[in-house]
Design goal:
By secondary structure, the protein is α/β, with parallel strands linked by helices. Helices cover 37% and strands 19% of the residues. Strand 4, helix 4 and strand 5 form a beta-alpha-beta unit. The longest helix is centred in the N-terminal third of the chain and has 22 residues.
């Protein structure tokens, strides 16, 4: 089976491409160097002969306006090209709680979900919690000796587990919104960040920021009810991080 991966060079995209190959399929990597989601240039050629598309694309800047503009443009072009190519299944990665917590980026994800659901290409949307890499991404934004991380309760999941589920879904029939995927334990981001700093042996001091959108600190981005559980733990991820 030929599966296109939009955003195939990103954090989760690389794992998806690996999983596509592991499952015995052929991966077509769609990135800024091969096709432009925001203009549609190169998409028709990239999707030629593809039976399924997995969209894990992302953009460079995230005010609400930028996020909505990116996902509106990228999703519209992807849907149009997928329809012309006769793609039988579009699988989109979204975020648990993005429809409830009012972060700027999440308004873009809401727009993406709405366009896919209203589109003419058969679809599946998988919502995931934050990846284990999220703590490191937050720390990377620190510009001094102190890193201030959001007051946030998360149920982080391994990118490998998400990638595996996306490929499994892509090989099957379109299912609309499916059960979300989350890791096996709930953790505060400040604790994850401190453990990661300790593992690296950094001198960075980690503090929890006050305020933030309603619901962020109380589990608004964790699954409610049933979900698909990832098998890898945060401790296993830390063991993979070189000191």
């Amino acid at each position: 089976m030929k599966i296109a991966v939009a955003g195939g060079t990103g954090v989760v995209g690389r794992k998806v491409v690996e999983e596509v190959a592991r499952a015995g399929h052929e991966a077509v990597v769609i990135s800024r160097s091969t096709a432009d989601l925001t203009t549609g240039e190169g998409l028709d050629e990239a999707l030629a002969g593809c039976e399924a598309v997995i969209d894990v694309s992302n953009g460079p800047a995230w005010t609400r306006e930028e996020a909505e503009r990116f996902f509106t443009s990228a999703t519209t072009h992807l849907l149009d090209s997928a329809e012309r190519a006769g793609v039988r299944h579009l699988v989109v990665l979204s975020i648990v709680g993005a429809d409830e917590v009012d972060l700027d980026y999440y308004f873009g994800k809401r727009r993406q979900e709405a366009l896919v659901a209203a589109g003419r290409v058969p679809w599946t949307v998988l919502k995931a919690t934050q990846f284990f890499e999220f703590a490191g991404q937050v720390l990377a934004q620190a510009s001094g000796p102190v890193a201030r991380v959001p007051a946030m309760l998360s149920q982080p999941v391994a990118t490998e587990d998400v990638a595996g589920r996306l490929v499994e879904l892509a090989a099957g029939e379109p299912r609309g919104f499916v059960l979300p995927i989350a890791g096996p334990e709930r953790l505060r981001v400040v604790d994850m960040a401190r453990q990661l700093v300790a593992r690296r042996g950094d001198d960075l001091r980690v503090e929890e920021a006050e305020g933030g959108p309603a619901g962020l600190a109380t589990g608004g981005l964790t699954p409610r009810g049933e979900y698909t559980g990832g098998g890898r733990t945060w401790a296993e991820y830390l063991d993979s991080v070189g000191a």
